[in-house]
Amino acid sequence: MHSIVVKHFLPVFWLVLGAFAGCAGLGTKLESPRISVIGVRALEANLFEQRLEVRLLVRNPNALDIPVRGLDVRMELADEPFAQGTSAREFVVPARGEAEFDMLVTANAASALLRIATAGRSEREQIGYRLSGKLSTRLGVLRSIPFEETGTLALGDLGSKKRKGE
User: Are 61 and 33 in contact (CB under 8 A)?
Assistant: First the structure.
C-alpha cells in the first residue's frame, strides 16, 4: 500500500514543485515588452492585398529574459486598419535588453493610403501607427503577454528595411 501511494504521489509532488519553481522565476509582476516598428518593405502587391516585411524592435523592461515563441500583430496607420500577421519565429529578448526581428504581414492598404494622400504635408512626412496583439512566450504559466503601442513612422521608412546602426 505504501509503495502505491509513493508511486502515485511522487510524480504529482515533482510536478507541483516544478510549477512553483517556474512561478518563482517570474517575480512579482512582469511588465509588457515595448514593441515598435523600425522599417517596412513591400514584397508583393496587387490591388486588393499587399505582403509586407515589417521590422520590429522588442524592448524588455524586465529583469529576466523573455523566450518568445511567436507574435500576433495588428497594425493601424493613420487610425485606419492596415495590416495583420502572425509569426512563429522563436527568439529571446534579453533581460533589460532588446531584439529586432522581421515578420511578414498581410495588408489591405487602400483606406490607409487614401487617408495619407488626403492629409496635409506634415502628416504625409510622419505617419502615426498603432500596434496591438500578443507575444507568446515560454515563461511557465505565463503563455502570452498582450501589448498595445503607438508611435510614428517616417513615410521614407515605408518601403525600406532598416537595421540597427543604419
Answer: yes
Predicted TM-score (pTM) of the model is: 0.70
**By mean pLDDT, which of 67-76, 92-101, 145-154 is the weakest?**
145-154
Enumerate the β-bridge partners of residue 71: 87, 135
Determine which helix (DSSP H) or strand (DSSP E) holds 17, and give its type and residue range: helix 2-24
- How many separate domains does the chain show? 1
- Residue 166, domain member (yes or no): no
* Full domain range(s) for residue 113: 31-157
Q: Give me the CATH number covering residue 42.
A: 2.60.40.1820
Q: Which of 15-23's residues contact partners 24+ apart within 8 Å by CB, and which partners?
A: 19/140, 19/141, 22/139, 22/140, 22/141, 23/140, 23/141
Residue 48 is assigned to a structural domain of this protein: yes
Residue 2 lies in a domain: no
pLDDT tens digits along 97-156: 999 999 999 998 776 666 666 666 655 578 889 999 999 998 877 788 899 999 988 876
Query: Does residue 9 fall inside a structural domain?
Result: no
- The three grid cell numbers given for residue 53, joined into one nine-digit string: 516585411
CA–CA separation, 31 and 21 (whole Å) = 20
Tell me the C-alpha distance between 133 and 136, whole Å. 10
